[in-house]
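Kindly review these C-alpha cells for lecture notes.

. . .
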Amino acid sequence: MHLLQFFSFEHLPAHLQEISKPYCELAKLMVATLPEKPERTSAIRKLLESKDCAVRARTWKD
C-alpha cells in the first residue's frame, strides 16, 4: 500500500518519533488485517491525517 510511506518516522527527531511510531504500527496492522476495500483506504487516510495533527500538536509554538 502506497500510503504507508507517509507513516515513516525514522527520519524524525526522537520527540516526534515517539508520537509517530504508534501510528505507523497501527497503519501496518490495518493493512495486514483489513480487507483491501475502499473503507480500508479511507481509514488509513484518516489515520494519516490524525498522525499529522498529532505531530503538529507536539511542535506547536505559542
User: Anything to note?
Assistant: The chain has a mean pLDDT of 97. Residues 38-59 form the longest helix (22 residues). Helices lie at 14-33, 38-59.
